[in-house]
Specification:
6-stranded parallel beta sheet; alpha/beta; single chain
């Protein structure tokens, strides 16, 4: 197996060759992949630009934008196939904004735990477009990678040592403890804590995902697809409210879908589904300001989902959970779905919540069990029921 070194050899050849020697000095085999778009690949490249482009010559591509799209698509294919064929141990890259965008897109094709390192000045700014909630390590060389100097040599040598160290610590499951995923928010914490304690007592390893979009539900769905979990307890589905109500934590169509489709034991509740997550007060539209709001912090305002929002959310629940092989249960507490959706609290609105309950109960196919429970989500009895149902599904 080999470390795949991704570099734009048209502009970063000297730096890429230096990094290669540093990796090889750590005893690592290196496969150099050229993603440059200005000229043909040099002779010391194992995977040429033309191979990344699927045999197409760079000369036949009309625009830089088109070339970047094709190069990204091709690189993702190269990296994905190398992993699937057992050729790739880790991935590393160096570059500016263009090279970092290309390399990070391809690294997202790799499972969690596979070492991924990028040396780039983009590490000193907004890293969200590159890391996107996953385990990509960015190293800031301080100066741009335009030549070899004492700072760039230092950063590249460090990157080689870091990657070698990461390879010595593989991601490992404790085979004696099957893993369970849980989603949580501050306003669903009592339920989450009770479920974690019970599952750990039963011998399971529990991973709690903060249901805040990219690094929450999206990453959990990816890990479900990678086969990390014996079961999923989706206690906090507020990201679905964001999807239908214009919130900032929307994940997209994979949310609620992966476990159901794969047949993994899956218990789902509308935890915090009544809240649509928005940014700070100064970002709100006049229409949003007219809605029922809960100011969680200076940078976070929650908007109460109304009947229309919850009707749309119910449709997503039905559409995505219907693709189940029989290992999905939906539990709906009828006395509220979060700390702020309880009697006397700002988001308490039983009539709006009942719309969701009615729509899900009426439209969900028979093979997905739906139970309305006379309890609040954070009641100890409801947490007990959630864990009981998941444990029953897993023990089947």
């Amino acid at each position: 197996m080999s470390v795949y070194l991704i570099a734009t050899m048209d502009t970063k050849a000297a730096e890429a060759r230096f990094l290669r020697t540093q990796l090889e000095a750590q005893g690592l085999a290196v496969t150099l992949v050229d993603t440059g778009i200005l000229k043909e690949s040099p002779a010391d490249v194992e995977i040429t630009q033309k191979e990344v482009l699927g045999g197409q010559s760079i000369a036949g591509i009309k625009t830089r934008a088109e070339c970047s799209v094709l190069m990204t698509r091709g690189l993702k294919r190269i990296i994905r196939e190398a992993w699937e064929e057992g050729k790739l141990t880790a991935a590393i890259s160096l570059g500016g904004s263009g090279g970092t965008t290309l390399a990070s897109a391809a690294m997202h094709e790799l499972p969690l735990g596979v070492p991924k390192v990028i040396v780039s000045t983009m590490a000193s700014g907004n890293t969200l477009p590159y890391v996107y909630g996953e385990d990509i390590l960015l190293i800031n060389p301080v100066v741009d990678i335009q030549n070899l100097n004492f700072l760039t040599r230092h950063a590249l040598a460090q990157a080689a040592h870091v990657l070698a160290g990461m390879l010595k610590v593989p991601l490992q499951h404790d085979d004696s403890k099957p893993a369970v995923a849980i989603t949580g928010f501050g306003v669903t914490t009592p339920c989450v804590d009770a479920c974690v304690a019970r599952l750990e007592q039963e011998g399971y390893e529990v991973l709690v995902f903060h249901a805040r979009g990219i690094s929450g539900g999206r990453l959990m769905e990816k890990m479900i697809a990678e086969g990390h979990f014996a079961g999923v307890l989706d206690l906090t589905t507020s990201e679905v409210a964001d999807e239908v109500g214009g919130g900032i934590y929307s994940v997209g169509e994979q949310r609620l879908h992966t476990a159901a489709k794969m047949g993994i034991p899956y218990v789902v509740t509308p935890g915090a589904l009544e809240m649509i997550n928005l940014a700070g007060e100064d970002t709100l539209t006049e229409q949003q300001k007219a809605r029922v709001l809960y100011r969680h912090s200076p940078s976070s305002v929650k908007m109460r989902a109304d009947k229309d929002d919850l009707t749309r959310a119910a449709k997503l629940f039905v559409d995505r959970l219907s693709d189940s092989t029989g290992n999905v249960e939906v539990l709906i507490p009828t006395k509220g779905w979060s700390m702020v959706n309880a009697e006397g609290q700002v988001f308490f609105d039983p009539e709006a919540d009942e719309v969701f309950t009615t729509e899900v109960t009426k439209n969900m196919p028979e093979h997905v069990k739906v139970t309305a429970v006379d309890a609040h989500l954070n009641d100890a009895a409801f947490a007990q029921l959630c864990t009981d149902r998941l444990l029953t599904l897993m023990k089947k």
